[in-house]
Design a protein that fits this description.
Blueprint (H helix, E strand, L loop, with lengths): L7 H12 L15 H15 L10 H7 L21 E4 L13 E2 L2 E2 L9 E6 L8 H6 L4 H6 L9 E3 L4 E4 L17 E6 L10 H4 L10 H20 L6 E4 L13 H14 L3 E2 L24
Parallel strand pairs: 1-6, 4-7, 4-8, 5-7, 8-9
Antiparallel strand pairs: 2-3, 5-6
Helix pairs in contact: 7-8
């Protein structure tokens, strides 16, 4: 492929660039390899393959890695790290649909973000508890635990920590999932199953729609492992994971997300043990800062 080429092959390359988060604001996937598409392709090759500009023909390796040429074999999913004692990591990425539920879709497929654009993790609580129906158990071959863990396939996240000590990976980390409002594009979503109060001492006022869920030591350990797993997997894929946010920082309606207990036991742990940065004063859209009740370095009140 060369500068100035036209046709379906060029359009495929353009669509793959768009799926990976590279912008083509003027012309989009118009099937013409002009200045805009050429620059985006060079940026992709430099950022993700370490290749400099070329002339006159695009190297086959660039097109194959991008997905703009037939792949010789199906790429292997990124490996999972070894879990901590007592924790299980369950990889369900092979069971996920394309497009995935609650994902950004272009051309009938989930958008894939460029790894270098993913710089952090957003911590969530699900604000609900999960059960399984007999139909779901039957679909899992009678395995109730698998049926429960498959619920993560429909949750907007990249990792989900269940209360039984299982971390589920339901989506490829590059997938653009609608999990965190203004934090969608640049972060991985880490969800913790349960309904936890925004303020530990006022659960009756700060828990969504029902009785609060007990935050057990096992839940905390599983949530920590989910964050660590995302950090290790993401960095192995070229994602500069440096920050951790709470969902409340990008949405006023998610005031209790991820909740005081999870922030204190998971976010502050990730800061001290994993070296992640907590930008407590950063907000996006109508989001709220991380309050002083949650964090010694918090800003403002709950």
């Amino acid at each position: 492929m060369r500068y100035g080429d036209k046709g379906d092959d060029v359009r495929l390359v353009q669509q793959q660039l768009l799926r990976r988060g590279y912008k083509l604001p003027a012309w989009g996937a118009d099937g013409v390899m002009g200045d805009e598409s050429w620059s985006a392709l060079e940026l992709y090759a430099k950022s993700e393959l370490g290749k400099k500009s070329w002339n006159p023909e695009v190297p086959e390796e660039v097109l194959v890695r991008l997905g703009g040429a037939p792949l010789p074999v199906d790429p292997e999913p990124s490996p999972l790290p070894e879990p901590a004692d007592g924790i299980t990591i369950l990889d369900l990425r092979s069971e996920q649909t394309d497009p995935a539920p609650k994902s950004k879709v272009v051309g009938g497929r989930t958008v894939k973000r460029a790894p270098h654009t993913i710089t952090g993790i957003t911590l969530h609580q699900t604000a609900c508890t999960y059960g399984v129906s007999q139909q779901q158990i039957d679909a899992a071959g009678g395995d109730r635990e698998l049926a429960l863990h498959r619920r993560a396939l429909n949750v907007a996240c990249h990792a989900m920590a269940f209360r039984d000590g299982t971390v589920v990976i339901p989506n490829e980390l590059e997938s653009y999932i609608y999990h965190g409002n203004g934090l969608n594009a640049a972060t991985l979503g880490c969800a913790v199953a349960g309904r936890y109060p925004g303020l530990v001492n006022e659960p009756e006022k700060t828990t969504w729609g029902g009785e609060p869920t007990e935050l057990t030591e096992l839940t905390i350990a599983t949530a920590r492992e989910a964050v660590r797993t995302l950090v290790e997997m993401g960095r192995a894929q070229g994602m500069p994971i440096d920050y951790l946010y709470g969902h409340r920082q990008s949405s006023s309606s998610r005031r209790a997300d991820p909740a005081e207990g999870l922030w204190r036991n998971v976010a502050l742990w990730a800061q001290s043990e994993l070296g992640l940065k907590l930008a407590q004063n950063i907000t996006l859209g109508d989001g709220r800062t991380i309050p002083k009740e949650w964090d010694p370095n918090g800003v403002g009140s709950y």
